[in-house]
Design goal:
The protein is α+β, with helices and mostly antiparallel strands. The protein folds into 2 domains: 5-144, no CATH class; 149-325, 2-Layer Sandwich (Alpha-D-Glucose-1,6-Bisphosphate, Chain A, domain 4), CATH 3.30.530. It is built from 9 helices and 7 strands; from the N terminus they run αααααβααββββαββα. Strands 1-7-6-5-4-3-2 form a 7-stranded antiparallel β-sheet. Helix 2 (42-60) packs across helix 3 (68-88) and helix 3 runs antiparallel to helix 4 (94-121). The protein starts with a helix and ends with a helix.
Length: 326
């Protein structure tokens, strides 16, 4: 991405203009109370980055003279600038940035490709200039009129434990003093560094009891028991009575907010015979965006990692207790 001083100046101008527009969109979305178009919209995730990358190329190469390598380099360079700037200056959480990066990159390449095809097939008329200015606004306005579908999702993970159901049950109900070395390696908590479980306590007994989960040094939330069948099934409804989860993970992804509602969960213990049990953890949530399929994909990764880690902790503790008892 080098060239003459005038070429470099146009390139800097293109990136600067795109960053100003991106920051303006961020400020407007942050200030808006509308639920329909925001950070979890098709407009923000796909149309905006496609438009911005196309705009950079259009400003930096008005005569369509730059090589193909320039066009290929714009989306990743712009994506890196946006992610680093968002993390350093806007204090964005790692979840949003990781979810944003791949779709912004793909959309950026789509925008660059469309721009080159269109410019090669026609003269740069005034209507084309106007379309570059007003296309994102038009798309955002259209999407704001589309109702948001609420998609119920059930996320399930299972593990085989070398212990009987009655030996596992106490560890499904509560776990104190969970060490940082317990559980298993996973992308979400080992690479992205989301907090790991530190303890789960229970107040009361049976239906109506309240489990409190503690993650890391700051996060806590409640699970209000709705099913209590010792050795067989434990069910609960999530209750997020404070904002600690989004405060210390990602402020745009509230567990009971406009884009997502983490609703209920349960453990099912199935005896397999010979002192072996299958423990299944289910989490039910509702995705409420225009990009539910994309959100569900990340739910499988992020929530799935957290579920698998919780099951690994229970397995380690139950098998350790069973071996001592044996």
């Amino acid at each position: 991405m080098t060239g003459t001083p005038s070429n470099r100046g146009r390139m800097v101008a293109g990136f600067t203009l795109a960053l100003v527009i991106a920051l303006s969109a961020y400020i407007l979305i942050n200030a808006s109370k509308a639920n329909s178009v925001g950070f979890a919209s098709l407009w923000f995730l796909a149309i905006l980055p496609a438009y911005l990358c196309a705009l950079i190329c259009y400003v930096a190469d008005p005569e369509l003279e730059r090589p193909r390598s320039f066009y290929l380099s714009v989306p990743p360079v712009f994506g890196i600038i946006v992610c680093v700037g968002s993390a350093v200056f806007l204090r964005e959480g790692v979840i949003c940035l990781v979810m944003l990066a791949p779709v912004w990159l793909a959309a950026g390449y789509a925008g660059v490709y469309i721009l080159r095809r269109v410019r090669r097939g026609r003269d740069d008329s005034a209507s084309f200039h106007a379309s570059l200015l007003f296309l994102p606004l038009m798309c955002g306005g259209v999407e704001s009129q589309i109702p948001i579908a609420e998609q119920p999702v059930t996320l399930t993970r299972s593990i085989i434990i070398e212990a009987a159901p009655e030996q596992i049950w106490p560890f499904a109900v509560a776990n104190a003093h969970i060490g940082s070395d317990e559980g298993q390696w996973n992308f979400t908590q080992s690479i992205l560094r989301l907090p790991r479980p530190r303890a789960t306590t229970v107040s009361g007994h049976g239906v109506g009891a309240i489990r409190t989960a503690y993650w890391g040094d700051h996060i806590n939330f409640e699970e209000r028991i709705t099913q209590w069948q010792p050795g067989r099934r434990l069910g609960w409804a999530f209750a997020f009575t404070n904002s600690s989860l989004q405060d210390y993970t990602d402020r745009h992804i509230a567990p009971d907010g406009q884009f997502l509602k983490i609703d209920t969960g349960d453990y099912t213990l199935t005896a397999l015979g010979k002192g072996r049990t299958q423990l299944t953890l289910r989490t039910n949530y509702i995705a409420k965006t225009h990009v539910n399929l994309y959100a569900q994909m990340w739910g499988e990764i992020l929530l799935g990692d957290i579920q698998s880690n919780v099951l690994a902790i229970i397995k380690q503790r139950a098998e350790g207790s069973a071996s001592q008892a044996g």
